[in-house]
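Help needed: design a sequence for this.
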């Protein structure tokens, strides 16, 4: 009997040591990722949600505290203003904003570790969260969704402990970070009420909506609208029946993409076999997240909108995985690790996984080569930005990329950038550049064509030859057009 107790105690100690070692490994990896990406500029939606307000606020000593008119996405302004405040204290450096992001990455991992310990998933929940390609991408970029992730995991941790104040604080964080946080908060409250049947506690949780309500009142007073800006009306809200059908298929694909189908399948198998209150709670949250995205976004459904469904489903997936053979465990790990490097020819390269970082190499190449001469470069979202918005610098060494949509006289344009890291060109622009000369610049799966109204330099044309689309890429483009 004594031997059995000693063996159990020994196994428990080994398990705790393994979990500590795993957290240390994960911490070192993400610390290295922070150091490696700390000079990366703002990119994609990070510009529209953070730096387009943060830099003007910084420059104006906070006289500007709302997003510029016409490009206000409607999100709460607290996160951009925190970035601006940190720049005022430590200087407007990209590493400051990356450090801010790293702090919330670390917080999310701490919550994941605590959840892992509570459910006794032997480190698998933490590991699967840490190697989730969407999580890796969020940790590597400047964005507000990593804050949502930390608050989401924090809410679930405090839920397991029954700590009401902690849950309310996390709900406030969700609501004041990003508009999707409001949808997530509503889903969490509904799931909590259905599974716990505690109306009094659920009502107390709604106190988290008071700061958000105050923000909405202030925002409406200043802009005349609450949540959805007039300019975004065609992108947000409930779509038509064909749009809803198409978006349901897109959401299903987003949930399975980048090897994440392993998480989905494992979680489904576990939930079917274990229909406990906790699993019902998890299922309600996952379906609620997917459903809220389905009903609120008409176009451009990003992978990161659904990471919360992946995260909550990672718990049943990890509980099932600990009972599987090593071969299956290795397969799941390899699938998720590989997801950070997946790319589909013919598809726009987004910030869903870390492949988007190849664009920064292209940016540096354009900046360092005599490609533009005295001409200005024009492009489409997500790349049309001044260097103050991307690199936080007025230094002329940084490249400004102007917006094609703001040009009134097309005859003044001499250089245009188009590629799989840029939005689509209008028919008018395509007709304009039909006979223009161009060169192609590539880095990994990312590529751009630089079109020139005048003939390109022969040396540049030899150094950056014209890129030809592969057969698979053309087929993917045709398929995308067919179902667009």
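Sure. Designed sequence:
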């Amino acid at each position: 009997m004594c031997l059995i107790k000693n063996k159990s105690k020994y196994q428990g100690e080994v398990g705790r040591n393994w979990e500590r070692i795993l957290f240390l490994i994960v911490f070192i990896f993400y610390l290295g990722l922070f150091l490696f990406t700390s000079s990366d500029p703002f990119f994609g939606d990070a510009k529209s949600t953070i730096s387009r307000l943060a830099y003007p606020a910084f420059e104006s000593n906070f006289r500007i505290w709302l997003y510029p008119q016409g490009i206000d996405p409607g999100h709460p302004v607290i996160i951009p203003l925190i970035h601006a405040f940190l720049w005022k204290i430590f200087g407007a450096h990209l590493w400051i904003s990356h450090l801010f992001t790293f702090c919330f990455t670390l917080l999310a991992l701490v919550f994941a570790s605590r959840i892992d310990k509570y459910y006794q998933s032997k480190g698998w929940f933490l590991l699967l969260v840490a190697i989730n390609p969407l999580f890796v991408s969020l940790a590597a970029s400047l964005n507000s969704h990593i804050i949502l992730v930390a608050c989401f995991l924090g809410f679930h941790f405090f839920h397991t402990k029954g700590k009401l104040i902690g849950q309310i604080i996390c709900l406030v964080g969700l609501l004041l970070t990003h508009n999707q946080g409001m949808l997530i908060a509503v889903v969490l409250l509904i799931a909590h009420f259905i599974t716990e049947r505690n109306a009094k506690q659920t009502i107390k949780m709604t106190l988290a909506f008071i700061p958000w309500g105050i923000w909405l009142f202030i925002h409406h007073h200043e802009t005349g609208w609450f949540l959805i800006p007039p300019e975004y009306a065609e992108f947000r809200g409930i779509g038509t029946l064909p749009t809803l059908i198409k978006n349901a298929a897109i959401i299903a694909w987003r949930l399975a993409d980048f090897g994440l189908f392993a998480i989905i399948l494992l979680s489904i198998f576990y939930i079917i076999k274990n229909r406990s209150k906790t699993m019902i709670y998890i299922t309600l949250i996952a379906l609620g997240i997917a459903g809220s995205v389905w009903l609120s976004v008409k176009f451009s459904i990003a992978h990161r909108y659904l990471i919360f469904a992946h995260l909550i489903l990672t718990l049943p997936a990890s509980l099932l995985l600990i009972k599987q053979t090593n071969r299956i465990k290795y397969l799941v790990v390899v699938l998720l690790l590989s997801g950070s490097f997946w790319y589909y020819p013919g598809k726009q390269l987004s910030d869903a996984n870390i492949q988007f970082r190849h664009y920064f190499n292209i940016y540096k190449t354009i900046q360092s080569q005599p490609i533009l001469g005295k001409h200005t470069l024009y492009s489409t979202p997500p790349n049309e930005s001044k260097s103050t918005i991307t690199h936080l610098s007025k230094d002329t060494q940084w490249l400004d990329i102007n917006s094609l949509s703001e040009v009134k006289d097309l005859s003044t344009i001499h250089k245009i950038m188009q590629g799989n890291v840029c939005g689509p060109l209008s028919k008018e622009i395509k007709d304009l550049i039909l006979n223009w000369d161009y060169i192609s610049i590539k880095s990994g799966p990312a590529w751009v064509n630089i079109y020139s109204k005048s003939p390109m330099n022969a040396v540049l044309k030899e150094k950056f030859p014209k890129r030809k689309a592969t057969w698979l890429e053309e087929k993917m483009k045709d398929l995308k057009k067919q179902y667009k």
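DSSP finds 21 helices and five strands in the chain.
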